[in-house]
């Protein structure tokens, strides 16, 4: 749901619709807190990315960065749309496998993959392992020598670019835990090792400069740095890099005053830069891969909460507390992330009260949104926090032993539960009683 809600997103009872489904009905049927996705919006975003590349007529691959939202149903939806996925843990890989997602369309990321995770990836023949460090090269050499099975790999490099975004979501700068540093020669040394390894089949290079990026400069610079490597490795190793993967990071609109660029602007700038460098140096344009996460699911998700207590401190702040919070959305507490909200059962009432939306967790920092202009609320009203589809549920916890919320998919006026609400029994499911002494 975009922050600009259309008239068609409101029914004649003044209720917010999500994927054509009345949000009040969703809350009644599934309870709150509830994360509801408009599935057609996810499909449209994927199609949109595909069309941008198809129009530019360049070889490409779109790999959904599943850390943004990874559940069985989501992998199945991505499978229906025929794109790739990237995973960053054995858990994501296992979920994809359980979903019946084709393993040859999986890229496996991570800065400290365990031997067991790599074994799992090799056993299930993932499409590509995105190798991050020398320890991983050694592990993979051991494992592939033992199995005598080759594996496709890409080297993740850090291009030394500081994207303009929150420092916790910047990843391309030199001082980063991810990838082989280019400047100090690590990337060069890594490539040499890979080329000498009998069972490591290099299919490309990868970089990811960060997340929620609003300017094209970082992407263009990243494209240049990757092409520099392509040219260098052609000269030094007579190796033609088949694929350049530029990661994700395309920013989305969370608040009314943000104006993110459309993905086509970023992607066209990347394509133009790479094409011009390839033409100037008379080499073939490598295949271009991207890994959007947030821009595929972010605006498709809405978090629904029931209003409970109110606290008005005259002249200071008006708090409205809801039945969720940092356990289902850590982003405001972690990154000072901002969201817009509406009262989903009062869409046609005047928004004339300024409130800040507090969660129910035992932390002062457990706030979901500050200074929101909303209609006056009473206990039982339904607040919808918009654009929470990325890194909400996937970063959820059961802090304070609050159960994690349910997730529902809505499409063409129908809803389907895709993640059950955690129960109180689930909360203690892994606990063991103290031994009798
Ligand atoms: C390697 C990699 N690829 C892709 C992504 C997806 O980023 P975003 O959700 O910002 O598109 C991330 C997350 O930042 C990442 O670390
Ligand atoms: N989790 C972050 C983005 C980091 C993505 C992982 N590299 C967010 O919510 O914005």
Automatic annotation (TrEMBL):
Start and end residues of each Orn/DAP/Arg decarboxylase 2 N-terminal domain: 40-297
Chloroplast found in the keyword field: no
Pathway info: Amino-acid biosynthesis; L-lysine biosynthesis via DAP pathway; L-lysine from DL-2,6-diaminopimelate: step 1/1
Enzyme class: lyase
Stated family: Belongs to the Orn/Lys/Arg decarboxylase class-II family. LysA subfamily.
Protein name in the entry: Diaminopimelate decarboxylase
Single biological process term from Gene Ontology: lysine biosynthetic process via diaminopimelate
Top-level taxon of origin: Bacteria
Catalyzed reactions per annotation: meso-2,6-diaminopimelate + H(+) = L-lysine + CO2
Binding residues for pyridoxal 5'-phosphate: 249, 291-294, 391
EC number(s) recorded for this UniProt protein: 4.1.1.20
Alphabetic keyword roster: Amino-acid biosynthesis, Decarboxylase, Lyase, Lysine biosynthesis, Pyridoxal phosphate
Record text on subunit structure and interactions: Homodimer.
Cofactor: pyridoxal 5'-phosphate
Biological function: Specifically catalyzes the decarboxylation of meso-diaminopimelate (meso-DAP) to L-lysine.
Record-linked PANTHER family: DIAMINOPIMELATE DECARBOXYLASE, GROUP IV DECARBOXYLASE
GO molecular function ontology, one term from the record: diaminopimelate decarboxylase activity
Active site: 362
Binding site for substrate: 294, 331, 335, 363, 391
N6-(pyridoxal phosphate)lysine, modified sites: 67
């Amino acid at each position: 749901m975009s922050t600009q809600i259309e008239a068609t997103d409101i029914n004649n009872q003044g209720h917010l619709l999500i994927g054509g489904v009345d949000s009040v009905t969703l809350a009644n049927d599934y309870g709150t807190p509830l994360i509801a996705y408009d599935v057609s919006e996810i499909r449209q975003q994927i199609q949109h990315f595909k069309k941008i590349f198809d129009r530019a007529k360049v070889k490409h691959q779109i790999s959904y960065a599943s850390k943004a939202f990874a559940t069985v149903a989501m992998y199945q939806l991505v499978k229906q749309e025929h794109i790739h996925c990237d995973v960053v843990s054995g858990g994501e890989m296992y979920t994809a496998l359980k979903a019946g997602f084709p393993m040859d369309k999986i890229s496996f990321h991570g800065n400290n993959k365990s031997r067991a995770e790599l074994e799992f990836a090799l056993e299930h023949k993932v499409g590509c392992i995105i190798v991050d460090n020398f320890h991983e090269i050694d592990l993979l050499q051991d494992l592939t020598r033992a199995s005598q099975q080759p594996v496709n790999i890409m080297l993740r490099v850090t291009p030394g670019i500081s994207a303009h975004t929150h420092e916790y979501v910047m990843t391309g700068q030199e001082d980063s835990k991810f990838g082989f540093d280019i400047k100090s020669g690590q990337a060069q040394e890594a490539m040499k090792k890979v080329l000498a390894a009998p069972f490591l089949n290099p299919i490309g290079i990868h970089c990811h400069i960060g997340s929620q990026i609003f300017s094209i400069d970082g992407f263009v610079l990243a494209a240049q740095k990757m092409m520099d490597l392509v040219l260098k490795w052609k000269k030094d190793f007579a190796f033609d890099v088949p694929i350049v993967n530029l990661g994700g990071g395309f920013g989305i609109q969370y608040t009314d005053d943000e104006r993110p660029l459309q993905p086509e602007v970023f992607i066209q700038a990347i394509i133009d830069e790479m094409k011009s460098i390839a033409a100037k140096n008379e080499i073939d344009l490598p295949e271009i891969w991207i890994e959007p996460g947030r821009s595929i699911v972010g605006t498709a998700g809405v978090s629904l909460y029931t209003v409970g207590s109110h606290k008005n401190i005259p002249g200071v702040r008006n708090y409205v507390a809801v039945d969720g919070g940092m356990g289902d959305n850590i982003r405001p507490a972690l990154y000072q992330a901002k969201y817009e909200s509406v009262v989903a059962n009062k869409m046609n009432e005047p928004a004339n009260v300024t409130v800040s939306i507090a969660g129910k967790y035992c932390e002062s920092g457990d706030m979901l949104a500050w200074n929101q202009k909303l209609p006056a609320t009473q206990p039982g009203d339904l607040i919808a926090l918009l654009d929470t589809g990325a890194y909400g549920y996937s970063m959820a916890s059961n802090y304070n032993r609050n159960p994690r919320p349910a997730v529902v998919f809505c499409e063409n006026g129908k809803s389907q539960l895709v993640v059950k609400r955690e129960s109180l029994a689930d909360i203690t499911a892994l606990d063991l009683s103290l031994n009798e002494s």
